[in-house]
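Risk mitigation, structural track. In case the binding assays with NDP fail to produce interpretable data, a predicted complex structure has been prepared as a fallback.
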Amino acid sequence: MTVVAVAGAGSWGTALAMVLADNGHEVRLWGHREELMQEINETRMNNRYLPGVELPDGICAYASLESALQDAEHILLVVPTKAYRDVLRQIRPMLSSPVTFIHASKGIEPDSSKRISEVIEEEIPAHLIASVVVLSGPSHAEEVGLRHPTTVTSASKHLEAAEMVQDLFMNSYFRVYTNPDIIGVELGGALKNIIALAAGITDGLGLGDNAKAALMTRGLAEIARLGRMMGANPLTFAGLTGMGDLIVTCTSVHSRNWRTGHMLGKGQSLEDVLANMGMVVEGVRTTKAAYQLAGKMNVEMPITIALHEVLFNGKSVKEAVESLMGRVRKHEMEAIPDLL
Ligand SMILES: NC(=O)C1=CN([C@@H]2O[C@H](COP(=O)(O)OP(=O)(O)OC[C@H]3O[C@@H](n4cnc5c(N)ncnc54)[C@H](OP(=O)(O)O)[C@@H]3O)[C@@H](O)[C@H]2O)C=CC1
Ligand SMILES: O=C(CO)COP(=O)(O)O
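Fallback model:
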């Protein structure tokens, strides 16, 4: 049995806490809302974020981060990307010996263009980090909560750490693979949210399955283009954390990113959609970050740019579709010279 602190008691933190508790680990689920933490301990449910799922006895909810971290060998971070620096700055003075940081969030920080593992390494001194591991893949919390078969990837520069996390989570309904390509795994998980927003928009507009297949395929091409420039292994994007997560996020009604796009396609404003969602929609912020990165790295990302114009510059979705379809002719493999 291992003691794991889970920082972030939303949908995904709660579902992953359940997987760990099913595997016999002692799980300290930390959330910053005292009332919700008390309710979880009393009702054995997180009705706000994962309704209908009965939580195993191995989970104890904490409103005090310090108590949750006490004796924890590993810290699983599952807060929205925008909360990372704040949460890590709270954690830092509470650590006295190195721990493994596992993160399961999917986003890139705007302006700094940092991946989450880089933010962790920036905020926590090296002597307090045993390893950084990313857990990512096609995995909606609602289905993991039902213990439906799910596959994900554990990625780390250190294979032993990736394998340790694989063993920690793996069970009969949750299968974990390893991959050393932490850059590709983090970028795939973050960037697919942009394409899911765009796919939701085309679904909301009623543009059909051809348009959605086009967005997903050309979306993956631009993700791989940026990834390659940032040092990822292009093959990672054909795996669970690339194509796999792109499929689930663009096609599932559980996806908050797809749902947001769908409502935008139906004519609602971004502000209204986000105000009513009640959960994080990472793709909005990541569109900003990817737009900046595409400019900095000089990588062609037409879907990301079109979505950026819709979300932040008032371009109509109709105009965005026309501008994408009206681009000059291309070779399908044009920007991936190795494949020509
Ligand atoms: N849901 C899913 O199926 C999956 C989600 N992910 C990723 O996991 C990450 C978390 O998503 P998810 O759990 O779905 O998000 P939710 O919106 O369901 O929950 C987010 C949680 O984080 C809390 N939170 C927000 N800011 C802070 C803060 N500053 N300090 C402490 N807690 C904070 C929220 O609390 P409050 O109630 O106060 O807002 C809430 O409990 C995202 O990056 C997402 O992309 C990855 C795979 C699957
Ligand atoms: O990453 C996810 C599934 O793998 C969750 O996607 P959403 O944040 O769009 O719900």
